Amino acid sequence: MDGMLAALHAELRNASRQVNAFGVNLNQLVRHANAHGQVPESVTWLAAYCFQVVRRTEAVIVELGRRLP
Question: Residue ranges per domain, the chain?
Fold first, then answer.
């Protein structure tokens, strides 16, 4: 069980890093949109990626909750 919890913990840490990177990229895109008056095409891809990471993170949290005493 400890090995499974460690793997879930590692996955949550990875998801946290990905969400942080998303935030950095989103800030850059918003700055670009404000400076140029247009939203870059990459916003659609970035939003989809963020939703994917959040869904996976939620699934890991649920699994972790099931395994806790």
Answer: 2-67
